[in-house]
Every structure is written in structure tokens, then in C-alpha cells.
Amino acid sequence: VQLQASGGGLVQAGGSLRLSCATSGRTFSGYDVGWFRQAPGKERGFVAAITASGDSTYYQDSVKGRFTISRDNTKNTVYLQMNSLKPEDTAVYYCATRLAPATVKSREYEYWGQGTLVTVSS
Hints:
Layout: E1 3-6, E2 9-12, E3 17-23, E4 33-38, E5 45-50, E6 57-59, E7 67-72, E8 77-82, E9 91-97, E10 111-112, E11 116-121
Parallel strand pairs: 2-11
Antiparallel strand pairs: 1-3, 3-8, 4-5, 4-9, 5-6, 7-8, 9-10, 9-11
């Protein structure tokens, strides 16, 4: 499964961005998908995940109420809507999937996108 993350950029604090994670050549409608992020000098950490059907979503505590994960299986795309962005949200954001239910542990994911940089200025 090849994933392509996009939508990053530079935004002021309080602003919004929508990230997209798309597949090419293969549907991933049957896969749970997670978003992770890695800030400079820090480990890659869990942000959000969504089940294959889209019925269930999970969030890291610091993004609850600000970020929303969703998916459109007809477009083979998973989205991460990020609102009320803070400077501490600055990181490279990655989408990932695995042949099993989503977890919060990045090492348990088999397929990764290339990452998209989000920079939030104060």
C-alpha cells in the first residue's frame, strides 16, 4: 500500500489546515488509518486514527476538540482537519496503515506516507 500525504504548510496560530492521505493503485477502504507527527528532536507520536468503516475515531489528548479525522472511501482518502492550531503542533505529519486494527504505536504500522510539514507560527 503506497500512501501520499499532502496539505501541510505554514499557518499562524489559531489557523486551520486540512491534511490528506491518499493511496494510489490500491484501495485502502478495508484498512484502519492513523496520523502521526514528529517534531524536531522528538519521537514520532500518535495523533489520530480512524477505523476502516469510519465509524470509530481516536485522538491523542492534546488534539481532542481541535482535530478531526475522517475518510472518504470512494476517493481512497483520509483527512485530518486541524483547527485552532498551536505552535506546538509544528511537526512533520505522517499517515500510516496496517493489516490489523489501528493502534497508537507507530512501530506497529507497516505502511507509511512520506510526511507533510506543518509549521505553526506564533
